[in-house]
Specification:
The structure holds 2 protein chains of 2 kinds.
Chain A (H helix, E strand, L loop, with lengths): L1 H8 L1 H33 L13 H28 L2 H33 L7 H22 L3 H15 L2 H11 L19 H33 L4 H8 L5 H8 L1
Helix pairs in contact in A: 2-8, 3-4, 3-6, 3-8, 4-5, 4-6, 4-8, 5-6, 5-7
Chain B lengths: L2 H6 L4 H42 L1
Chain lengths: 257, 55
């Protein structure tokens, strides 16, 4: 396991290994998503209180989970880059930020669309919604910081500090529905006793959550590989890759297009 | 369930489908950006090596 992780930390091995994984990751992602959508939109019965509007949950909840997960991932990767000066960790942190921002935007937007018919309003300034909005601003701040600093090493270091400090917001978002009176409903899945949701409604949610998770890693690896090539442009293997002419089928098709 | 019921979503069709449509757009966008980015980086690398060889 450690030997494997060590290999993965080497840019060249990372590039080649992940290149082979990406097609399979896409197949699994789309498979989970198709099954989750079929069960969630077609098979699961309407909710007894919310009717069919509850089906928005299958994109809203996984998006919200991802917005938190990616932030923690970004802060941890940034921290590893900061402490051990590891190039791959920096790249992971930098590349995950825009994906995290997209999921945060999705959680907020689908939440607003769900809120309108259920609460009668698109938006309220309550604890859960406001703290999630702050998360979006943290992501945007991180991205702006990366764009403002020319040197990638300095940018990664500054970004890591911002991400680590900002992670204070993560438990606040998670516990906001318990600490404050909010319009947002409490957790139904992540409770210590049995989840307050019927299996026919839970399965599609879990499948969609797995699909979003896989999707994140897939697009993250795609982004990271390009970033890696550019940052490693002075190394021999990238030079040989480019001069060899044939990088891999994906890029050949792109060159033809 | 019939197709009409599926589209109608018990009266919440507009909300449900706009939420799913938006999600599909954002996910698609995030999958296409890395492809474009990759093309850009490969172009930039070729130019960079060319300039370096000219020196």
């Amino acid at each position: 396991m450690w030997a494997f992780l060590h290999r993965l930390a080497s840019p060249k091995h990372f590039y080649h290994l992940t290149g082979a994984w990406i097609p399979w990751l896409w197949v699994t992602t789309l498979g989970c998503m198709a099954l989750g959508l079929y069960l969630g939109l077609w098979v699961a019965p309407p909710d007894y209180q919310q009717g069919d509007s509850f089906r928005i949950m299958y994109v809203h909840v996984p998006a919200a989970w991802m917005s938190l997960f990616i932030y923690v991932f970004m802060a941890v990767a940034g921290g590893i880059g900061l402490i051990w000066n590891m190039k791959m960790a920096d790249i992971m942190a930098v590349c995950s930020a825009p994906i995290g921002a997209s999921f945060t935007f999705l959680a907020l937007a689908t939440g607003a669309i769900w809120g309108k018919p259920m609460w009668g309003t698109w938006w309220v300034w309550d604890a859960r919604l406001t703290s999630e909005l702050i998360l979006l601003f943290l992501y945007l701040g991180y991205i702006a910081l990366q764009n403002a600093i020319e040197d990638p090493r300095t940018a990664a270091r500054a970004g890591a500090i911002l991400a680590i400090v900002g992670s204070v917001n993560i438990p606040i978002i998670h516990y906001s529905v318990e600490w404050w009176n909010t319009l947002h409903q409490g957790p139904t899945v992540t409770r210590f006793d049995k989840p307050a949701i019927h299996p026919s409604m839970l399965w599609p949610l879990l499948l969609m959550a797995v699909a979003f998770q896989l999707y994140f890693f897939t697009v993250l690896l795609m982004r990271a590989r390009s970033e890696l090539l550019w940052r490693e442009r002075r190394s021999r293997w990238v030079r040989e890759l480019l001069s060899g002419g044939s990088i891999e089928p994906l890029s050949q098709r792109e060159e033809a297009a | 369930m019939t197709w009409e019921e599926f589209i109608h979503m018990g009266g919440y069709g507009a909300y449900v489908w706009s939420a799913y449509g938006l999600t599909a757009l954002v996910l698609l966008w995030n999958a296409l950006i890395p492809l474009r980015r990759r093309r850009e980086v490969l172009d930039r690398l070729r130019r960079w090596y060319r300039q370096e060889n000219a020196r």
